[in-house]
User: Which sequence fits this backbone?
């Protein structure tokens, strides 16, 4: 398979260097000696770079003369330092190949001031050291730390302060991208394309990290199909599509704001397809060693290529004969991939079929939905916010234990987390919606048939008959054509807390007595009620049925 090598766009590291505050002290001395800032040049891998060291005010509280760790503090207040690192303008006319290192002192027991003026203690995973947030764009991720050390050396700061990051150091952001010709990118952002389909099949119905965006209008209100289309997948969704992958990602097709004003000869007229690491979407982390950075790059690239392959973009020529457009930082040439770089197949049809199979299997199990299951699914389909079992129970006047048991029985269709419950995906939600509608239509048909039989027999509704019809509607009662005898009574699920040792039919009997009371009050014969078949469901024994006479005696 031929593909192109994606390029790094944004990237950021959170680096902790433990053991000493010398990096902070050294930066302070250089800034003071240089009148507030120092600018220099250096060479890295044969390239020219510039570096500027400067300072900014800090929200770290003044520790006084001595830190809580016992180290002397010889400054009035606290300042933080930055090193701006940029490719020399003669070698990067665009000016977007750059990094910035934000250097902050850290010590055990330090306090910081909040925006509202309050103060809090900051957790520091070591006794003393510095924290460096190193962020940038259009630079290979493996070069960030070496470039920081090269800049430090050129500025007169010991590069040894920025070696051997502490284990608490992590990647905070990272995006790999390709630039696709605008004539070839349509299948990526199409309504049936991989971005939309992943959102439809792999996104939780209402989870906190759900993000599917399909915006075809730019900031000026002009229509540009595919202007900003994204889908965000948390770790479990990523593994569903790519079993070997772990990190949460955002897959994004997007144009520059000024794209429509550019000619097709300008790279900015053509969209990017990017895959970025989403650190806020999980509790895990990615470390900063070369091997860990390589693993992250591999997952991002494999995901990106899988999307391209699914959309058929690698086989679709653009205006210039190829699907990709070269820019200042992305090389559009196609190369043959090594076997280890081959992307996984994005088999969305398989995922769709699996979800449909799950729904069908659940709906067919034990003869269909119980009343509590139908109520729970109905709420999940129609409610747009966070829903808990207690919310469902309150809405339908059910015991919360009954709702939880019903949710366990339909476990494959729903996801439960932190006291909330949601449907597995929008595709599952659509299938469930159809099933619930069919269930309710069937219930209405039964109710209408029962009501019509009663109405024709009564020739006008008394209060007693109206009460009886309400009870019949609730329990899906089947009556004969004349409305004089009941053939079947469906009670749905009977809560286990309404059953007693030695009297397992207590809850069923209570419901029947209510119905019998209304039947008799409307002037009907007791025997016609007692001959009915009663059907209900119990959690531990499944569906059951008995003659009403056997339950009432």
Assistant:
């Amino acid at each position: 398979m031929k593909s192109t090598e994606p390029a790094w766009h944004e990237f950021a590291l959170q680096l902790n260097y433990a053991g000493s505050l010398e990096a902070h002290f050294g930066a302070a001395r250089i800034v003071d000696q240089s009148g507030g800032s120092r600018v220099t040049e250096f060479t890295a891998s044969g390239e020219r770079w510039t570096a500027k060291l400067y300072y900014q005010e800090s929200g770290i509280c003044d520790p006084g003369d001595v830190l809580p760790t016992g180290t002397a503090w010889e400054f009035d207040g606290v300042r933080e330092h930055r090193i701006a690192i940029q490719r020399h303008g003669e070698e990067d006319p665009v000016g977007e190949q750059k990094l910035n290192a934000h250097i902050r002192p850290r010590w055990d027991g330090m306090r910081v001031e909040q925006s509202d003026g309050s103060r809090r203690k900051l957790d520091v995973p070591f006794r003393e050291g510095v924290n460096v947030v190193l962020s940038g764009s259009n630079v290979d991720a493996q070069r960030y730390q070496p470039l920081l050390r090269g800049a430090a050396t050129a500025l007169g700061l010991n590069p040894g302060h920025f070696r051997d990051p502490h284990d608490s150091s992590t990647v905070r952001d990272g995006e790999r991208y390709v630039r696709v010709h605008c004539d070839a990118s349509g299948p990526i952002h199409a309504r049936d394309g991989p971005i939309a389909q992943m959102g439809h099949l792999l996104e939780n119905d209402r989870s906190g990290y759900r993000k599917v965006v399909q915006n075809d209008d730019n900031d000026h209100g002009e229509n540009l199909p595919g202007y900003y289309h994204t889908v965000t997948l948390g770790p479990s969704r990523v593994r569903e599509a790519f079993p070997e992958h772990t990190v949460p990602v955002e897959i994004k097709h997007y144009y520059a704001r000024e794209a429509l004003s550019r000619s097709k000869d300008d790279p900015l007229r053509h969209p990017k397809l990017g895959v970025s690491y989403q650190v806020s979407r999980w509790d895990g982390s990615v470390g900063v060693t070369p091997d860990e950075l390589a693993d992250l790059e591999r997952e991002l690239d494999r995901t990106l290529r899988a999307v391209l392959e699914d959309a058929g973009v690698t086989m679709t020529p653009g205006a210039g004969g190829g699907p990709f457009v070269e820019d200042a930082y992305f090389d559009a040439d196609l190369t043959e991939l090594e076997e280890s770089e081959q992307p996984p197949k994005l088999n969305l049809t398989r995922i769709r079929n699996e979800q449909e199979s799950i729904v069908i299997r659940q709906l067919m199990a034990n003869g269909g939905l119980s009343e509590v299951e139908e109520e729970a699914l109905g709420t999940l389909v129609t409610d747009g916010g966070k829903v808990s079992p207690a919310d469902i129970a309150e809405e339908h006047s059910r015991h919360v234990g009954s709702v939880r048991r019903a949710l366990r029985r339909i476990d494959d269709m729903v996801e439960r987390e932190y006291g909330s419950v949601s449907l597995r995906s929008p595709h599952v939600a659509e299938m469930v919606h159809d099933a619930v509608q069919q269930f309710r239509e069937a219930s209405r048909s039964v109710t209408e048939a029962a009501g019509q039989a009663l109405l024709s027999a009564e020739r006008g509704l008394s209060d007693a008959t109206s009460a009886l019809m309400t009870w019949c509607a609730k329990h899906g009662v089947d009556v004969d054509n004349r409305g004089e005898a009941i053939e079947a009574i469906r009670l749905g699920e009977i809560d286990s807390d309404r059953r007693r040792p030695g009297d397992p039919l207590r809850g069923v009997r209570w419901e029947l007595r209510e119905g019998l009371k209304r039947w008799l009050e409307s002037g009907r014969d007791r025997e016609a009620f007692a001959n009915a078949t009663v059907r209900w469901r119990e959690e531990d024994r499944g569906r059951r049925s008995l003659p009403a006479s056997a339950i009432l005696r």
Remarks:
- The longest strand covers residues 7-18.
